[in-house]
Design brief:
By secondary structure, the chain is an alpha/beta fold. Helices cover 46% and strands 20% of the residues. The protein has helices at 2-18, 20-42, 63-72, 90-93, 96-107, 123-130, 136-145, 158-167, and strands spanning 50-51, 55-58, 77-78, 85-89, 117-121, 172-180, 183-192, 202-205. The strands form two sheets. The chain has a six-stranded mixed β-sheet. A two-stranded parallel ribbon has the order 1-3. A hairpin with a 2-residue loop joins strand 6 and strand 7. The N and C termini lie far apart (42 Å).
Length: 206
């Protein structure tokens, strides 16, 4: 695993000087190999040896290293097959390179379903989410399901972000979570402009 991560870093640096296509092709291959290792590591484990996070917190890249660190902190195997929502750090989601790294990694890992709902949040929100209170995933989903239709915010899924990443012909607004009287609520969003060769950017939408 450490060897593959090391090669991932080298490939990323090389891509800056010898062409993006070759670099991303190699990254894709390495991600596939890592996913295979993760899958095999999880095979044969009993349910009591697994933990099933409902919400994925994404605050740093390389994402593969972040996931590995999180696994080392847990005595049980982290099985992400039941993740309902993903909360990105506001700093990460507004950083084009970090955002691309995270989305590329997630796309290459089949364990993360395309219908996972996506949010952006401050560090305070991320700390609240990391407690992984029981039913947290359902409560976040409730922002869309349990409100009147006229007040309902438009949901964004991982699948839509993957499409946006590769096609770049539209903009996406990721709903933003904030803390209000110790509770998480929706407040505006982060608008991601179309991905183009010249670069991309993000801005807040109230």
């Amino acid at each position: 695993m450490k060897y593959l991560l090391k090669q991932y870093r080298k490939t990323k640096e090389k891509g800056k000087s010898s062409g993006r296509k070759m670099a991303w092709d190699r990254i894709t291959f390495l991600l596939f190999m890592i996913c295979a290792v993760v899958f095999l590591a999880g095979c044969g484990r009993e349910l009591e040896e697994r933990e099933f996070p409902e919400v994925l917190v994404i605050r740093e890249t390389p994402l593969l290293e972040a996931l590995e660190k999180e696994q080392k902190k847990n005595s049980k195997y982290l099985d992400y097959g039941q993740v309902q929502c993903a909360v990105f750090s506001e700093n990460l989601v507004t950083d084009p390179e970090a955002r691309r790294d995270a989305l590329t990694c997630l796309e290459q890992m089949p364990v993360f379903a395309r219908n996972i709902l996506v949010f952006a949040g401050s560090e305070e929100v991320l700390e609240k989410v990391e407690i992984q209170e029981e039913g947290l995933g359902a409560r976040l989903e409730g922002f869309y399901k349990n409100v009147p239709k006229q007040d309902r915010k438009e949901a964004v899924t991982l699948g839509e972000l993957f499409y946006w990443l590769h096609n770049g012909d539209s903009e996406v607004v990721i709903p933003r979570l904030i803390m209000q009287e110790e509770e998480m609520v929706l407040s505006g969003g982060v608008e991601l402009k179309a991905e183009v060769m010249a670069g991309n950017f993000a801005r807040w939408r109230e």
